[in-house]
Amino acid sequence: MIFSRRYHRALTQGRLTVDLPDPVRPKLSTCLFDFNSSVGVQRDPNDNWITNSCVVEESLLRLMSEHGWDQIPGDVGIRVGDPYYDGFKHVIRQAKAHIVFDLIELAMTFMDQKEQDNCRIRINQIFDLYECPWRIADGEFFKLDADFMGARLAANAHDALAANKFVGAADEFAKARLELASSDIRDAIHHAAKSFESVMKVMTGLEHASADQFIKAMASKGYFDDLPATARLGFADQVMKTLPFIRNKLAGHGQGAGVVNVPAAYGELAIQLAATLHNFLVTKHLERTPSKPVNSSAPAQLLDDDIPF
Description:
Blueprint: H1 3-6, H2 8-12, H3 24-34, E1 38-41, E2 51-54, H4 55-67, H5 84-94, H6 97-109, H7 113-129, E3 134-137, E4 140-143, H8 148-163, H9 167-181, H10 185-204, H11 211-220, H12 229-238, H13 242-251, H14 264-288
Antiparallel strand pairs: 1-2, 3-4
């Protein structure tokens, strides 16, 4: 589902707010038009006729269909059949921010994988440059933690997972951050811990195991052998089990009957712990199976005021 559908309740109840700084909007518009490639569309499933279209036009049509609009809300009043360029630019520059997110997510679905990756990188660079607390990953927007270092850590952890064949874990981690943004704290903790276990599942080769079994398997496979022998057991018990402990006590079967609401701070803690553990595990994984990590943040480019957005 598109952004405003996924978080309809949180948006309508005011638990989730979305804002875009004014300078960000024209840059997003330019970015999307740079990836406005041709698209062949079969409008009638019973007819083989293919219509020549483009990413921008199809994403605008899909947006109007998703929201049941005959006319785009706003002063311009773009209608179905009007020039798609004007309508697309109007939405990006004037529509509510969550509608802009809807349109960008839809546009990404019409791009091939390489275009999606490049578009994602540039959109995230725009947000980073203007200190906007949103990022896009796996075609979906999520809100970063307010703390810059924590935000950078979480974003880098997701990219490290996606770049090193931990796609399932990356997806679960993205869900955790999305749930935290919409104040679903228990689900955020649950998916953060799940993503941690998914990484260990790949590294140990175990199919069905508990967090404790995964951690013991990591130790038995020698992942902690670079530590002194006297520290390995303590590291496994005291460090690797922190996130599973939080999940079991606050979001899983281990919580007591008296626990009603989990404060947001514990959800943020779970996300940051997961990010730290992910980066650690990816490092250990690469020690055995070296590969070239993808650096999607490209910090050097952010210093150039003439970035071709």
